[in-house]
Amino acid sequence: MIKTILLSSVCCLLLVAAGAQPTAVDSFLAKLRTHCGKAFEGTVTAGGREGDGFTGRRLLMQVRTCESGTIQVPFYVGDDRSRVWVLKVMEGRLQLKHDHTHQDGKPDAVTQYGGWATNTGNGSLQVFPADQATCDLLPAACGNVWWMTLTDTECTYNLRRIGTDRLFTVRFDLTRPVASEAKPWGWE
Question: Which residues contact 23 (CB under 8 A, 6 or more apart)?
């Protein structure tokens, strides 16, 4: 973890020294990398309702792996460890994919959906409209827009389904890391 943070800091310093300014994507990911190896509890702040599978359960995000160009953030819902948010940089653009697995580690039939940021966003906000692969896999999700916010004190994960009243937000308190040795299903 310390090596990842140091490498990220050195890369940013090299960019500045070379006269290149870090992009908004670089800034966003560098900020997220500072939490690598840590876990944070969250609460549903919008769109929660009884029986939705999230309300009343412990919600935990864990910034688990921080490799060059890719950050994986498992999102645990109670005992369900099937979800991982995968943030990947390609050609200066940021992609969000939802990696879902079963308890035995096999991929769920509904996995690898998400989208590409349509622009660079900023260091505290990245927006991901559903991509064509998502539309092909889940036609009802073709109007989905996901976004993540990241400040010094909180991270939010959000979903809005355009054309409907569907809005879902989970807020994680980054000022209070919690202990967690959990691993996503299939990572054992």
Answer: 92, 120
